Amino acid sequence: MKYEGALHRSIKRRLEQVIEMAELVGLLAIGIGTALAMGHLIWKMTDSGGVTLTDLLLMFLYLEVFAMVGQYLKAGQLPVRFPLYIAMVSIARDVILRAGANTELHLVASAGAILLIALGVLLIRYGQSRYPSNADERPDERAR
Protein backbone atom coordinates (compact mmCIF):
# COMPACT_ATOMS: atom_id res chain seq x y z
CA MET A 1 0.00 0.00 0.00
CA LYS A 2 2.78 2.44 0.82
CA TYR A 3 4.24 2.10 -2.69
CA GLU A 4 0.87 2.86 -4.29
CA GLY A 5 1.13 6.61 -3.46
CA ALA A 6 4.70 6.78 -4.74
CA LEU A 7 3.69 5.02 -7.97
CA HIS A 8 0.76 7.42 -8.41
CA ARG A 9 3.04 10.46 -7.92
CA SER A 10 5.62 9.02 -10.32
CA ILE A 11 3.03 8.39 -13.04
CA LYS A 12 1.55 11.85 -12.53
CA ARG A 13 4.99 13.46 -12.76
CA ARG A 14 5.78 11.56 -15.98
CA LEU A 15 2.45 12.56 -17.55
CA GLU A 16 3.07 16.19 -16.65
CA GLN A 17 6.50 15.97 -18.29
CA VAL A 18 5.00 14.45 -21.45
CA ILE A 19 2.34 17.15 -21.63
CA GLU A 20 4.92 19.88 -21.04
CA MET A 21 7.10 18.45 -23.81
CA ALA A 22 4.10 18.27 -26.17
CA GLU A 23 3.36 21.94 -25.43
CA LEU A 24 6.95 22.91 -26.21
CA VAL A 25 6.92 20.91 -29.46
CA GLY A 26 3.64 22.58 -30.43
CA LEU A 27 5.03 26.04 -29.62
CA LEU A 28 8.15 25.24 -31.63
CA ALA A 29 6.02 24.17 -34.60
CA ILE A 30 3.93 27.35 -34.34
CA GLY A 31 7.05 29.50 -34.08
CA ILE A 32 8.78 27.84 -37.04
CA GLY A 33 5.61 27.96 -39.15
CA THR A 34 5.11 31.63 -38.35
CA ALA A 35 8.74 32.43 -39.12
CA LEU A 36 8.50 30.60 -42.45
CA ALA A 37 5.26 32.36 -43.35
CA MET A 38 6.75 35.73 -42.46
CA GLY A 39 9.88 34.95 -44.47
CA HIS A 40 7.72 33.97 -47.44
CA LEU A 41 5.78 37.23 -47.15
CA ILE A 42 9.00 39.27 -46.99
CA TRP A 43 10.33 37.37 -50.02
CA LYS A 44 7.10 38.07 -51.90
CA MET A 45 7.26 41.78 -51.02
CA THR A 46 10.86 42.13 -52.15
CA ASP A 47 10.13 40.16 -55.32
CA SER A 48 7.15 42.36 -56.21
CA GLY A 49 9.03 45.53 -55.30
CA GLY A 50 6.15 46.95 -53.27
CA VAL A 51 4.53 46.79 -49.87
CA THR A 52 0.78 47.03 -49.40
CA LEU A 53 -1.23 47.76 -46.32
CA THR A 54 -2.50 44.18 -46.28
CA ASP A 55 1.12 42.96 -46.26
CA LEU A 56 1.85 45.12 -43.23
CA LEU A 57 -1.27 43.93 -41.44
CA LEU A 58 -0.33 40.32 -42.16
CA MET A 59 3.15 40.94 -40.73
CA PHE A 60 1.49 42.45 -37.66
CA LEU A 61 -0.58 39.27 -37.31
CA TYR A 62 2.60 37.20 -37.48
CA LEU A 63 4.18 39.37 -34.78
CA GLU A 64 1.12 38.87 -32.58
CA VAL A 65 1.50 35.11 -32.97
CA PHE A 66 5.16 35.43 -31.95
CA ALA A 67 4.07 37.52 -28.95
CA MET A 68 1.56 34.83 -27.96
CA VAL A 69 4.22 32.13 -28.14
CA GLY A 70 6.64 34.28 -26.14
CA GLN A 71 4.04 35.07 -23.50
CA TYR A 72 3.14 31.40 -23.18
CA LEU A 73 6.82 30.47 -22.76
CA LYS A 74 7.38 33.20 -20.15
CA ALA A 75 4.23 32.87 -18.07
CA GLY A 76 3.02 29.36 -18.87
CA GLN A 77 -0.40 30.71 -19.74
CA LEU A 78 -1.95 32.61 -22.60
CA PRO A 79 -3.96 35.76 -22.01
CA VAL A 80 -7.17 35.70 -24.03
CA ARG A 81 -6.43 39.26 -25.20
CA PHE A 82 -3.83 38.15 -27.76
CA PRO A 83 -6.25 36.15 -29.93
CA LEU A 84 -8.72 39.04 -29.66
CA TYR A 85 -6.11 41.46 -31.00
CA ILE A 86 -5.43 39.04 -33.85
CA ALA A 87 -9.15 38.84 -34.58
CA MET A 88 -9.46 42.63 -34.80
CA VAL A 89 -6.52 42.94 -37.19
CA SER A 90 -7.83 40.02 -39.25
CA ILE A 91 -11.20 41.69 -39.68
CA ALA A 92 -9.53 44.97 -40.66
CA ARG A 93 -7.35 43.12 -43.16
CA ASP A 94 -10.41 41.41 -44.63
CA VAL A 95 -12.11 44.79 -45.09
CA ILE A 96 -9.04 46.14 -46.88
CA LEU A 97 -8.62 43.05 -49.08
CA ARG A 98 -12.26 43.27 -50.19
CA ALA A 99 -12.11 47.04 -50.71
CA GLY A 100 -13.96 46.98 -54.04
CA ALA A 101 -16.44 44.24 -53.17
CA ASN A 102 -17.52 45.43 -49.71
CA THR A 103 -21.19 46.15 -49.24
CA GLU A 104 -22.45 48.62 -46.70
CA LEU A 105 -23.76 45.75 -44.60
CA HIS A 106 -20.35 44.04 -44.64
CA LEU A 107 -18.60 47.24 -43.56
CA VAL A 108 -21.08 47.88 -40.76
CA ALA A 109 -20.88 44.26 -39.60
CA SER A 110 -17.08 44.34 -39.67
CA ALA A 111 -16.94 47.62 -37.77
CA GLY A 112 -19.45 46.26 -35.25
CA ALA A 113 -17.40 43.09 -34.80
CA ILE A 114 -14.22 45.09 -34.19
CA LEU A 115 -16.08 47.32 -31.73
CA LEU A 116 -17.49 44.34 -29.83
CA ILE A 117 -14.08 42.69 -29.65
CA ALA A 118 -12.49 45.96 -28.46
CA LEU A 119 -15.15 46.28 -25.77
CA GLY A 120 -14.43 42.69 -24.77
CA VAL A 121 -10.72 43.51 -24.45
CA LEU A 122 -11.55 46.55 -22.30
CA LEU A 123 -13.84 44.45 -20.12
CA ILE A 124 -11.18 41.78 -19.70
CA ARG A 125 -8.52 44.39 -18.86
CA TYR A 126 -10.84 46.00 -16.31
CA GLY A 127 -11.62 42.64 -14.75
CA GLN A 128 -7.94 41.73 -14.55
CA SER A 129 -7.00 45.00 -12.89
CA ARG A 130 -10.00 45.08 -10.55
CA TYR A 131 -10.08 41.37 -9.69
CA PRO A 132 -6.59 39.88 -10.25
CA SER A 133 -6.22 36.13 -9.90
CA ASN A 134 -3.14 36.33 -7.64
CA ALA A 135 -3.67 37.51 -4.07
CA ASP A 136 -0.44 39.53 -4.10
CA GLU A 137 -1.65 41.55 -7.13
CA ARG A 138 -4.94 42.57 -5.52
CA PRO A 139 -5.35 46.26 -4.72
CA ASP A 140 -5.20 47.24 -1.06
CA GLU A 141 -8.74 47.37 0.32
CA ARG A 142 -7.85 50.37 2.50
CA ALA A 143 -6.81 52.42 -0.55
CA ARG A 144 -10.43 52.69 -1.74
UniProtKB/TrEMBL annotation:
<dbReference type="GO" id="GO:0016036">
    <property type="term" value="P:cellular response to phosphate starvation"/>
</dbReference>
<dbReference type="InterPro" id="IPR020948">
    <property type="entry name" value="P_starv_induced_PsiE-like"/>
</dbReference>
<dbReference type="GO" id="GO:0005886">
    <property type="term" value="C:plasma membrane"/>
</dbReference>
<keyword id="KW-0472">Membrane</keyword>
<keyword id="KW-0812">Transmembrane</keyword>
<keyword id="KW-1003">Cell membrane</keyword>
<comment type="similarity">
    <text>Belongs to the PsiE family.</text>
</comment>
<dbReference type="InterPro" id="IPR009315">
    <property type="entry name" value="P_starv_induced_PsiE"/>
</dbReference>
<protein>
    <recommendedName>
        <fullName>Protein PsiE</fullName>
    </recommendedName>
</protein>
<feature type="transmembrane region" description="Helical">
    <location>
        <begin position="107"/>
        <end position="124"/>
    </location>
</feature>
<keyword id="KW-1133">Transmembrane helix</keyword>
<feature type="transmembrane region" description="Helical">
    <location>
        <begin position="21"/>
        <end position="43"/>
    </location>
</feature>
<dbReference type="Pfam" id="PF06146">
    <property type="entry name" value="PsiE"/>
</dbReference>
<feature type="transmembrane region" description="Helical">
    <location>
        <begin position="82"/>
        <end position="101"/>
    </location>
</feature>
<feature type="transmembrane region" description="Helical">
    <location>
        <begin position="49"/>
        <end position="70"/>
    </location>
</feature>
